[in-house]
Model the fold of this input.
Amino acid sequence: MRDARLTDDFDPLVKETFTSAHEDYARLRRECPVAHSSAFNGFWSFVRHQDVVDALRQPDLFITSVQNVVPKVAFTGRRPPLHFDPPDHTPYRRALNPFFTDAKMRELEPKVRQVTIELLQPLIESGGGEVCAEFTRKLPGYVFAEFFHLPAELAMAIKETTVVYNQSLQKADDELVKETSLRLYDIARRIIEMRKKNPWDPAEDPTSAMLVARGNDGELLPEPLVLGTIRQMIVVGMIAPSVLVPCMMIHLAEHPELQDQLRSNPALIAAAVEEYLRLYTPYRGFARTAKQDIEVGGRQILANEPIALVYASANRDEDVFENADEFILNRPNIDKHLAFGVGPHRCAGMPLARMMLRVTLEELLKRAQITGLAGEVVMTRWPEWGALSAPVALVPIEQ
Done:
């Protein structure tokens, strides 16, 4: 007999438009803030800001080591720190955090700006095009090549493989997910072997730092888990910017007055990035598992049932953000947005993400007017939210 608790409150597999998912999340926040779906073998969703925050701030109760995303796609190995709970995850974060400081971002920014300009210019000169294929899927590969100090050949391998990996997630093709995940492991393995043959100063290179880092027991981190960490960083850092940047461009195309405001006062662009992170949050499937039976929002959730923390919904919760569906520059409580999560698993790479997004807007607005869409926008499906394809029209600005 079917468990009466396990209702079908929404369908995460339905084809979406640019606005439909957020319309459905608004309905769920009103009517069913703790929702259930039978898709992906069944899972719960927390769609209210407070419920998501409560789960993130209780890592002893809501753990990530069972399943860190809905649907479960970790078929090919353990990948710290996301797949580990504190304190097991802590040595990996301790090794990585020094590479995401403001000082490190200032060192990296000139190279990010250079590659951003080089990728944007052909798109602008041709009057626009399909932004995802021609710009946003390329940029993170080059940036991560600089971050990991990789040759161009490996950067391109990362770019091409992550595109296929994301497509396999969108199609829910488990076999292709496994195949491309193993290819990403091969790339991470090559990065490690390259650093073993040509060591860098651990203060300057993240792979070298991971290879000499020590765990809570004082021993070197196990190499299979160092491998998993590098594999994880490649994917997390590649997909989010590729679906968020086109959403920012779509919004700017619809709001030429905002383009003019940011163009005339570039100091506002960092604030615009924060509001875009809130409004167009690219993650909606990060998962936790309750270690014991719990009740949230009047719903009984049993231990070991997966829970999706829907950041994309929480960041438009009307109880927290006034006029939540609107873009409001310098929103007074913007620091409450959850695009990077909170708690021990808050995204380590957020300084890099912010810098990439800011530089992209600075260089785009300096060089072009975004005049509109030039075709149909195709949206991602779970676990990301954003544009998979976004043709835009651009008019060059005389320099």
In short: Residues 11 and 54 are 25 Å apart (CA to CA).
